[in-house]
Specification:
Elements: E1 5-10, H1 18-32, E2 36-41, H2 42-45, H3 66-76, H4 81-92, E3 95-101, H5 109-118, E4 147-153, H6 170-183, E5 188-189, E6 193-195, H7 203-218
């Protein structure tokens, strides 16, 4: 297995938490086996999650058109230093780990704000394919070639997080991150590492979790990805609607997974 350059984005306020312990074990295992790891510990960094004209050097008295301002500042090199530093980490990485506790059925606000400010138009999306003139997204984009794994935890037991569980299906809850952020920008996600009943983790279970996590991390370069359909793969019509011959009679989110695909991005 070739050495890997991995960016670990950590969005938990307490380093002594279960999440913090898993992060420490995971990064140590990667470094011990010869991989390079860079970290973005968002709470420790005091990351500012709020998009503003200060990000792009625009006049706050003028109307702030976020996408256009981000694209111009990205192309002109006028983004704030903290944003450009995080973009450089993303470009350096072969793979990304995104770790967060699931709060109110989604990531903490600080992580959403990291994506809002770092994945700017002109950097992570909004770039046109010079051959087709269409905007590149969903498997064809500037961050293509990278893969990512989500690590998340929640207090509920897995039985209540299934398709018929009262909390809803965890795969559906992670769809906005997996498909709407990662795959949209060309990053291929692999199956997430999920810790249920996090607050009821004792020493024996923690030992199992660290062993399982280490195996998942070291297999990341060759792990099959979730198999989302490519926008330009012929599965969608000119209005970007899935053609009727694919997943006929269904309209759940999993229709966007190609059951025959194994993407090795």
């Amino acid at each position: 297995m070739a050495d890997m350059r991995l960016l670990w984005i950590f969005a938990h306020p307490e380093p002594r938490s279960l999440n913090g312990a898993l992060r420490d074990h995971g990064t140590a295992a990667l470094r011990r086996t010869g991989h390079e790891v860079r970290e973005s510990d968002l709470y420790a960094m005091g990351w500012n999650p709020v998009v503003s004209p200060a990000d792009t050097g625009d006049d706050p008295a003028e109307r702030f058109v976020v996408g256009a301002a981000q694209e111009t500042a990205t192309c002109d090199g006028r983004l704030r230093d903290d944003i450009r530093a995080e973009q450089a980490k993303v470009m350096w990485a072969d793979a990304v780990v995104i770790q967060f506790p699931m709060w109110w059925f989604g990531p903490p606000a600080i992580l959403k704000g990291w994506f809002d400010r770092v994945f700017t138009q002109g950097f992570a999306f909004g770039v046109r394919n010079p051959r087709t003139g269409r905007k590149m997204r969903y498997g064809e984009n500037t961050l293509w070639g990278r893969r990512a794994m989500v690590i998340t935890s929640y207090g509920a037991r897995d039985s209540s997080m299934g398709p018929r569980g009262i909390h809803g299906d965890v795969d559906a809850l992670l769809f906005p991150v997996h498909h709407g952020i990662l795959w949209y920008t060309g990053i291929a996600p692999v199956a997430p590492f999920i810790v249920d009943a996090a607050e009821r983790t004792g020493p024996e279970r923690f030992a199992r979790l660290t062993t399982d996590l280490e195996k998942r991390l070291l297999a990341l370069p060759d792990a099959p990805t979730l198999g989302y359909r490519h926008q330009e793969g012929g599965h969608y019509d000119e209005n970007l609607v899935l053609r009727p011959q694919y997943a006929p009679g269904r309209d759940d989110l999993s229709v966007h997974v190609d059951p025959e695909a194994v993407h090795l991005a």
